[in-house]
Design goal:
By secondary structure, the chain is of the alpha+beta class. It has helices at 12-23, 40-43, 59-69, 80-85, 87-95, 99-126, 145-149, 152-161, 170-176, 199-212, 254-259, 323-335, 380-395; strands spanning 4-8, 27-31, 47-48, 76-78, 133-134, 138-142, 166-169, 186-190, 194-196, 216-218, 222-226, 231-235, 241-243, 245-248, 267-279, 288-291, 296-301, 304-309, 311-313, 338-341, 347-354, 360-363, 370-374. 34% of the residues lie in helices and 26% in strands. Strands 4, 6, 7, 8, 15, 16, 17, 18, 19, 20 and 21 form an eleven-stranded mixed sheet that branches. Strands 10-2-1-14-23-22 form a six-stranded mixed sheet. It binds flavin-adenine dinucleotide.
Length: 414
């Protein structure tokens, strides 16, 4: 039976969820204080990955920990105050650095991402957004033999989970990506992955499908969500909404909103930055490139070459610290020719990360009609469409194509 459903949060996860629920015949309202798709989903690297299956808290992390703690890797920056305040979260996050969890999470993420990519490809065609899409893969490059050898664990996981990949030698890399300077010894191309030249434009294109089919978007913030009979969503500036069901999809803000309903969600924020640079003369970059040793990614975007940083552990709303992205840009200039910075200041987004590095997709444990879809950490652009499908299947009690159990909220005692 059709329901009145409110989706709280209009990032890529909220947008795709609203669209899918609308397609199942529901009357869907999407609420967001900003223009949808302008927070984390705006500034990411734009990779639609089918192979981001090795989570950060894998068994190899323990070995790399001393280097990371001493801030000798650009892949991580952290605020000591934040880490001390969030020590229980950090301890739980590290407790997942086991072979068993790597096996479990990589299988779960692979299934989610592979299916999601197929759904994206169909939706991109339907949304007439093919001009944003690049089917050129996702390239990891290594500056030394030693760093490539240290990547062995990832390659084994790719084999085990069926992630399509091709290994490139120094010479072959020159053919594949002529814009790269000859400083890389090895490359691994995830050849089935795709990317987009503007994640924000992709959000807009999907949102247009939703609004053109009658979906309502309200530019306001959910202040509280209550369940006095029907669901009531109190908004900051406008009248409250009533709904039969509520989807919480507010990315890094979800834990705070869920707290108002009595849930303690084990979420932290892996902040990340981007800055655009003018492309240099000569060959243009063809794809997103992860310079593994230097801990950053660069990708050609509509706005310029977007350099994105690794992880910064800090309060969600702490002031920007541009040291990591500045280092990333210095490294990117070694890798390719780049012009001036385009903006005055960098952009910052927050990857919403749960302690086991898997998203939470499914029924809220203690409230009927309340559903969660958040915690997509490093992969939310990639995983959004399949997460929306899982949720819509669960809500309509239809058979779920993907096993939803690794993502069920009740895996934690919230
Ligand atoms: C530097 C960087 C690079 C990345 N690269 C990639 C990549 O290449 N590929 C990939 O798949 N993923 C990538 N990610 C991760 C990806 O961007 C996120 O996982 C994804 O954007 C999360 O989407 P979301 O919809 O959950 O959150 P968001 O996009 O943050 O959306 C949440 C929305 O909730 C709204 N909101 C907040 N409070 C309220 C409220 N009270 N009421 C209503 N709405 C509210 C916000 O305004 C926001 O629009 C990257 C992330 C970063 C930071």
């Amino acid at each position: 039976m059709p329901q009145r459903i409110t989706v709280v949060g209009g990032g890529i996860v909220g947008i795709t969820t609203a669209l899918e629920l609308q397609r199942r015949g529901n009357q869907v309202t999407l609420i967001d204080p900003n223009q949808p798709g302008r927070e984390t989903s705006y500034g990411n690297t734009g990779v639609l990955s089918d192979g981001s299956v090795v989570i950060s808290n894998n068994p190899g992390l323990r070995k790399r920990l001393p280097k990371l703690i001493l801030k000798k890797s650009n892949a991580l920056n952290y605020s000591l105050g934040f880490v001390l305040k969030r020590l229980p979260w950090v301890a739980r996050f590290l407790s997942y650095c086991t072979d068993r969890h790597l096996d479990h999470s990589s299988q779960a993420l692979r299934t989610l991402q592979a299916h999601s990519l197929q759904l994206h490809l169909a939706l991109i065609t339907e949304a007439q957004a093919e001009h944003l899409l690049r089917k050129t893969g996702w390239l990891k490059v290594f500056r030394s033999d030693a760093s490539f050898e240290a990547y062995e664990m990832e390659l084994k996981v790719f084999e085990r989970t069926g992630v399509g990949h091709t290994i490139f030698s120094e010479e072959e890399l020159k053919q594949l990506e002529p814009a790269l300077n000859p400083i890389f010894r090895h490359g691994v191309l995830l050849h089935d992955a795709c990317s987009v030249s503007s994640p924000a434009a992709l959000c807009d294109a999907y949102l247009k499908l939703f609004t053109e089919a009658g979906g309502e978007v309200i530019r306001d913030a959910a202040k509280s969500i209550r369940n006095p009979g029907d669901w009531e969503i109190e908004l900051r500036d406008t009248a409250s909404l009533e709904a039969d069901a509520v989807i919480l999809a507010a990315g890094p803000w979800s834990a705070e909103i869920a707290k108002g309903l009595g849930y303690s969600v084990p979420m932290a924020w892996e902040r990340g930055y981007h800055w655009h640079l003018e492309p240099g003369p000569g060959s243009a970059l063809q794809r997103a490139i992860h310079d593994v040793d230097a801990g950053y990614v660069m990708t050609p975007q509509q706005q310029g070459v977007r350099v994105t940083s690794g992880v910064e552990l800090n309060d969600r709303d702490a002031p920007l610290d541009d040291r990591q992205i500045e280092q990333s840009i210095r490294s990117a200039r070694q890798a390719t020719t780049l012009g001036d910075k385009i903006e005055e200041t960098p952009w910052m987004g927050r990857r919403p990360t749960l302690v086991d590095s898997l998203p939470m997709i499914g029924a809220a444990p203690r409230h009927q009609g309340l559903w969660f879809n958040f915690g997509h950490q490093h992969n939310g652009l990639s995983t959004s469409t399949a997460s929306a499908e899982i949720l819509a299947d669960l809500i309509s009690e239809a058979p779920v194509i993907i096993d939803p159990s690794p993502f069920r909220p009740a895996r934690f005692s919230l």
